[in-house]
Design a protein that fits this description.
Blueprint: H1 5-12, E1 81-85, H2 86-91, H3 97-104, E2 108-111, E3 121-124, E4 127-129, E5 140-143, E6 146-147, E7 166-172, E8 186-191, E9 199-207, E10 211-222, E11 225-236, E12 245-257, E13 261-275, E14 280-281, H4 282-285, E15 297-312, E16 318-338, E17 348-350, E18 356-360, E19 369-394, E20 397-423, E21 429-430, E22 446-464, E23 469-486, E24 494-512, E25 515-526, H5 530-533, E26 557-571, H6 572-575, E27 586-599, E28 602-606, E29 613-617, E30 620-633, E31 637-650, E32 654-657, H7 662-668, E33 671-674, E34 686-695, E35 700-709, E36 728-740, E37 743-750, E38 758-763, E39 778-782, E40 787-795
Parallel strand pairs: 5-8
Antiparallel strand pairs: 1-7, 2-3, 3-4, 5-6, 7-8, 9-10, 9-40, 10-11, 11-12, 12-13, 13-15, 14-39, 15-16, 16-19, 17-18, 19-20, 20-21, 20-22, 22-23, 23-24, 24-25, 25-26, 26-27, 27-30, 28-29, 30-31, 31-34, 32-33, 34-35, 35-36, 36-37, 37-40, 38-39
Length: 796
């Protein structure tokens, strides 16, 4: 599961054009141990460490992030790359990674599926990275070069990442060098260390929803040694019922930098608890926006991740890099749901078909039965990467080649059971009774072991054909071996091996000194996860990862991406001298087109059996569109504007289950016949974001931003018959006052217009709870209301 940061960079280097953020012209940047260096046509010496006892001055934001470990070579790969520096991340004062991405990164939007800000589903160009089990993942996510998609289902738990410790955050479009899962792109997070940050900072705030949070970071350098420590804690009651959170996370790094190399050891720890309210019927949310539909829905996530990485340069042309890491992730989940079991006037309960079961009726007279599904996931991953980079002249042409090998072994222990209970008037499942063991209904306790073996062998070459034209070509071989072992029977035993070679090729051309064009073609693949392989039979559906069964094999997803565009930068005074007094800074810009076909796309499909579902290959899907962005910065003003059009459609004729869609129930027995051109649900077509921060005086700053998203089609409405959810725009304001050189006070007004965004919707069984006769089959997730927060930041 670990791709190199090196790789990351590799793709990262996409921000070529003539300047830092979106425009590097030809050659790649070389970075050593997290110290960003400007691109140049020859090897670059290591940057001297900043003076101690103060925050290191912000380095120019390069096209790609400055990795801390271990792969640190960037290439001018022709693809879209968007980078946010720690200074830019700090502007919007977001406590979570997803919030920072949604505010500023082009093409990124949040779907509030879970109803908790620490469980966001991030969507980039129609591909997602989600913490929700059962969501087909389309983005790879890396922290310091380590792939953090979990071993069991490739889920991404954003709550585990310490946001204050982020040095640089980059979103990269599809590139096979990021390994498995990068069919839609990748998010790379580079963390701080004692060489990139020195000083002390303490930040505390409180406000709406009983939110209280604090963060601390400290970095110090002494000669060739440096260390860094960051800690965060937060708690709130949530903006919906039963959705409170308690967050604790830590990141630390110690490093040594010598004349020709560098070595780092770092650790990430987290222990978080939160409620996830999920979507609720619109008839409930119209009365009470904080309403939930069956609860409890609680999670407890625990993480311990360790990494040792380093790099050494034997001479001016060669660099060797490597890392070894270990990741331990545990999750316990409690999920209250409706059930098909019901009292039928006998001593035993009946199932949804009215047939008696072997479950005793201990709840005679109960208005409506429910269940509590309990799951326990314990995943461990160990892996590493070795890489070599050569940068030299061959036959008079500058050439840079990178090649390496990465390997990860993961193993997971998964267990689940279900207990019967009664749904109370407040929709809490209580009075729990026996554990359900009903194999005839597909429900029985589960104990499974799974193993993953991921091998990647890759190479990438960048050749400067002329001082304007650069060609890039490379490939990655992926091998994914997946095994399942059923500890209670032999039904789920199975294994699969998925292999593929994914190529990438492209050109960048420097049209003007500060304008570049790019075009590329790439392929990527995603192997089915153990979770998906354990739940892929329509005839034997399961409660996502709660109850697995023996299933037919799934095919791996393969994506083909074509991308082209322009990017550059311009100093406004040079362009319009009259503007020198008003806009003395630099404007960076980019505009591009993209098209990604996904073959054998894997979808999660609801079953005719209530509350259950399965995974299936759903033919070919297409995500294509336009993306444009602007960013301006000078000493007093920072501003940004971006727009993304994402046209996401099915390209095959397929039959999918939609047991709660009224039209599907009425005409096709609860199934949908999807035809080419139908829109894929839950993907907004239009995304617009803008923002600015301005220093009114040296002490007083004001700022604000807006995020707009078009309405999406509901899940289970793949035939596009019920219209979209309403569009929404979130407006946020902020201000700060530097009272002394070391003390700052600030205030935040989040969602100033008090818009309850409906970013996700689906259908549900209106008759599932007998004492609530719903008439509207739609349910939605509502975003947070207006929030007001105040805080203080102390720094030395």
């Amino acid at each position: 599961m670990a791709l190199d940061k090196r790789i990351s960079l590799i793709a990262l280097g996409a921000a070529l054009a003539a300047s830092d953020s979106f425009a590097q012209t030809s050659l790649p940047t070389i970075e050593v141990g997290g110290a960003p260096l400007r691109a140049t046509a020859r090897p670059i010496p290591m940057r001297p460490a900043p003076a101690p006892n103060r925050a290191a001055p912000a380095a120019p934001v390069p096209a790609a992030p400055a990795p801390v470990s271990p792969i640190v070579v960037k290439y001018a790969v022709p693809a879209a790359t968007y980078t946010l520096s720690s200074k830019e991340l700090q502007q919007t004062r977001q406590f979570d990674v997803a919030g920072a991405l949604q505010r500023q990164a082009p093409g990124v939007i949040i779907s509030d599926v879970a109803g908790n800000p620490f469980q966001p589903q991030i969507d980039f160009r129609g591909f997602v990275a989600s913490p929700i089990s059962g969501t087909p993942q389309g983005l790879a996510v890396y922290q310091n070069g380590i792939r953090i998609n979990e071993a069991w289902g490739d889920a991404v738990n954003w709550d585990l990442i310490p946001s204050i410790a982020m040095d640089r955050l980059t979103v990269v479009s599809g590139n096979p060098l990021f390994g498995l899962n990068a069919i839609g792109g990748a998010v790379t997070i580079d963390m701080k260390n004692g060489f990139t940050y020195q000083g002390f900072e303490f930040d505390a705030r409180a406000g709406s929803f009983a939110r209280r949070q604090a963060a601390m970071q400290y970095g110090v350098q002494s000669g060739a040694f440096a260390s860094y420590l960051a800690m965060e804690a937060a708690g709130d009651k949530g903006y919906r019922h039963f959705s409170g959170s308690h967050i604790k996370r830590l990141y630390g790094d110690v490093g040594y930098r010598g004349e020709s190399g560098e070595i780092h050891a770092n650790v990430t720890l987290a222990q978080n608890r939160f409620g996830a309210s999920g979507p609720a019927p619109v008839e409930l949310t119209n009365v009470d926006p904080g309403a939930v539909y069956t609860t409890p829905q609680n999670y407890k996530n625990t993480l311990a991740m360790f990494d040792l990485n380093g790099n050494v340069a034997p001479d001016e042309h060669w660099k060797l890099l490597g890392d070894i890491h270990f990741r331990a992730f545990d999750q316990a989940r409690v999920d209250g749901n409706a059930t098909e079991f019901n009292s039928c006037g006998d001593v035993m309960l009946c199932n949804g078909d009215g047939d008696p079961t072997n479950l005793p009726d201990l709840f005679s007279g109960a208005a409506s039965l429910g269940v509590i599904d309990n799951t326990w996931t314990r995943s461990r991953t160990i892996g590493g990467t070795v890489q070599a980079v050569n940068d030299d002249l061959y036959f008079g042409f500058h050439n840079k080649i990178t090649f390496g090998v990465s390997y990860d072994h993961g193993w997971t222990a998964f267990a689940a059971n279900e207990t019967l209970g009664v749904i109370q008037p407040n929709l809490v499942v209580g009075l729990t009774g026996p554990i359900v063991e009903e194999p005839a209904s597909g429900i029985s306790s589960v104990s499974v072991r799974a193993s993953n073996d991921y091998l990647g062998v890759y190479a990438l070459d960048t050749l400067d054909i002329t001082d304007r034209l650069t060609a890039t070509a490379g490939a990655r071989f992926n091998r994914a071996g997946i095994s399942l072992y059923d500890l209670r029977s032999t039904q789920i035993n199975g294994a699969g091996v998925y292999t593929r070679i994914n190529p990438v090729a492209g050109l960048t051309y420097k049209i003007l000194p500060n304008v570049s064009a790019y075009a590329s073609y790439s392929e990527a693949n995603r192997a089915p996860t153990p979770l998906e392989l354990g739940c892929s039979d329509p005839a034997r559906p399961c409660l996502i990862d709660n109850f697995l069964v023996s299933d037919p094999p799934l095919k791996q997803v393969v994506s083909h991406t074509i991308e082209t565009g322009l990017r550059g930068n311009v100093a406004l005074p040079a362009l319009a001298p009259v503007a020198a007094d008003y806009l003395p800074g630099e404007l960076t810009w980019s505009a591009g087109l993209y098209r990604t076909y996904s073959f054998n796309d894997i979808l999660s499909v609801p079953s005719q059996v209530g509350g259950r579902g399965y995974f299936t290959n759903a033919g070919t899907t297409l995500r294509q569109g336009v993306e444009a962005s602007l960013r301006y910065a000078d000493e007093r003003l920072s501003a940004w504007l971006s727009y993304t059009l994402t046209d996401a459609t099915f390209q095959s004729t397929i039959l999918l289950g939609a047991p709660n869609n009224p039209l599907a129930i009425a005409f096709t027995g609860g199934n949908e016949l999807i035809t080419p051109g139908a829109n894929i649900p839950s993907i907004p077509r239009h995304r617009l974001k803008a923002g600015a921060d301005y220093a009114v005086t040296p002490q007083w700053r004001v700022g604000g931003d807006i995020v707009y998203a078009a309405g999406t089609w509901l899940r289970e409405d793949e035939i596009n018959a019920f219209g979209t959810l309403p569009p929404y725009a979130l407006v946020n304001f902020r201000t700060s006052w530097q009272a002394t050189p070391n003390v700052q006070f600030y205030g935040l007004l989040e969602n100033a217009a008090n818009v309850r965004a409906r970013s996700f919707g689906t259908f549900f069984d209106r008759a599932a709870i007998s004492f609530l006769p719903f008439t509207n089959p739609k349910m939605v997730s509502l975003g947070p209301p207006l929030g007001l927060f105040g805080g203080v930041k102390i720094s030395f």
